[in-house]
Amino acid sequence: MLKTILSVSGKPGLYQLISSGKNMVIVESLVDGKKIPIHARDKVVSLGDISIYTETDDTPLKDILISIKQKENGGKASINTSAKPEELKKYFLEILPDFDRDRVYPTDIKKIIGWYNILINANIDFEQVEEKTEEEVESAE
């Protein structure tokens, strides 16, 4: 499910992929439901492609979102994104104890918490297992 949820550079919030064309995609805001075109020149990142640095390896964003959901019992994050950097790091330590403190910044933590809250408000099931497309299955063989 996170593969179709997009972050667009320069635009607040998250967007769900609706359709794609030759030089653009149509997305719908998870915050207000407005549909907008995103052109090839815009920087777009799928949440399914994001991972967070840890001391040993990278942890997929999906695993971190699931950890937050378990900590918050399925509700919104108990910490505000405007909290002090020390508070954000303390909260994130509870979610991902071995995150790399040198490469994961408070702004990254704010963004993850904000994304989590948007996904919860939009009732997006980010725990859902992604189905492999036919193309991905054929390339794996």
Question: Strand order of the main beta sheet, please?
Answer: 4-3-2-1-5
Helix/strand structural class: alpha+beta
Radius of gyration: 16 Å
Number of strands: 7
- Fraction of helical residues: 25-40%
Using the alpha-carbon principal axes, give the shape.
globular
Q: Helical region count?
A: 4
Strand content: 15-25%
Order of helices and strands: EEEEEEEHHHH
First-to-last CA distance: 23 Å
Low-confidence stretches: 133-141
Residue-averaged pLDDT: 88
Which sheet architecture does the biggest sheet show? 5 strands, antiparallel
Structure description:
The protein is an alpha+beta fold and 141 residues long. Helix content is 32%, strand content 21%.
In short:
With 141 residues, the chain is α+β, with helices and mostly antiparallel strands. The chain is 32% helix and 21% strand.
Overview features:
32% helix; disordered C terminus; alpha+beta; 141 residues; five-stranded antiparallel β-sheet
What's the topology here?
Blueprint: E1 5-8, E2 15-20, E3 24-29, E4 35-39, E5 44-46, E6 51-53, E7 58-60, H1 61-71, H2 85-95, H3 106-121, H4 134-140
